[in-house]
């Protein structure tokens, strides 16, 4: 979409996407209208359709792509190298800190509960996010265990589900202790066993 666009055009489009993302976090995708986006960005209807020819569907797909990037970026640099128990602990803390800071307005909840249902294109973006996230976790689990492939994939998926479940409960309650407990339990089997003394 950005191909052939001027730097100013890319900046304007990005500004609209970020504002629309904030609106979907606050109001939900179903309640966010083009008029809301126009008001939040001080753009005209013709401007919106210039950058998003399909209107609301295009904007929501762009928001899904933006939010997916935010979800993965917040986990770096740890997600890129989960090859030690220390890096797993760093990743867990980074995830916990990120969602504690965001509270009930988090992109992950918006992506899964709202944007993924808004269009086939947005659903595809959300699916790609989870595939990329799972692949990184799979690499990390492989690095610290000698488990078979299927066990590794199950572990990675259980960790991913722990994050998602904890975030959903955070959105519903405003409390991060569920996310904290779920993450701790999900990664604890990856901790190396230290030899005891006789």
Detailed description of the structure:
The chain has 198 residues and is mostly helical. It folds into two domains: 7-63, Arc Repressor Mutant, subunit A, CATH 1.10.10; 67-190, Tetracycline Repressor, domain 2. The protein contains nine helices and no strands. α1 crosses α2 (34-41) and α4 crosses α6 (107-113). It is elongated.
Described by strand count, sense and barrel closure, the largest sheet is: none
Counting DSSP H or I runs of 4 or more residues, the number of helices is: 9
Please indicate the count of domains. Answer: 2
What CATH architecture label of the largest domain applies? Answer: Orthogonal Bundle
The pLDDT mean sits at 88
> Structural class given helices, strands, pairing?
mainly alpha
Q: Between the first and last Cα atoms, what is the distance in angstroms?
A: 65 Å
State the share of residues found in helices, binned by percent.
Answer: over 70%
Regarding CATH, which class of the largest domain?
Answer: Mainly Alpha
Give me the strand/helix succession: HHHHHHHHH
Number of strands: 0
Low-confidence stretches: none
Question: How big is the Rg?
Answer: 19 Å
Which descriptor suits the 3D outline? elongated
What percentage of the residues does DSSP assign to strands (E)?
under 5%
Predict the CATH topology of the largest domain. Tetracycline Repressor, domain 2
């Amino acid at each position: 979409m950005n191909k052939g666009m001027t730097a100013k055009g890319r900046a304007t489009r990005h500004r609209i996407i970020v504002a629309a993302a904030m609106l979907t976090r606050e109001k939900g995708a179903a309640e966010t209208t083009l008029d809301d986006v126009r008001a939040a960005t001080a753009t005209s209807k013709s401007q919106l359709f210039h950058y998003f020819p399909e209107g609301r569907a295009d904007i929501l797909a762009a928001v899904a792509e933006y939010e997916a990037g935010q979800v993965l970026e917040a986990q770096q640099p740890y997600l890129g190298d989960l090859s030690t128990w220390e890096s797993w602990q760093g990743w867990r803390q980074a995830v916990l800190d990120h969602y504690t800071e965001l509270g009930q307005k988090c992109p992950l909840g918006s992506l899964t509960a709202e944007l993924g249902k808004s269009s086939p294109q947005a659903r595809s973006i959300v699916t790609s996010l989870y595939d990329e996230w799972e692949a990184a976790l799979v690499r990390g689990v492989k690095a610290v265990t000698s488990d078979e492939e299927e066990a590794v994939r199950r572990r990675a998926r259980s960790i991913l589900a722990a994050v998602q479940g904890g975030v959903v409960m955070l959105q519903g309650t405003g409390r991060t202790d569920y996310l904290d407990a779920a993450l701790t339990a999900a990664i604890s089997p990856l901790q190396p066993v230290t030899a005891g003394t006789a």
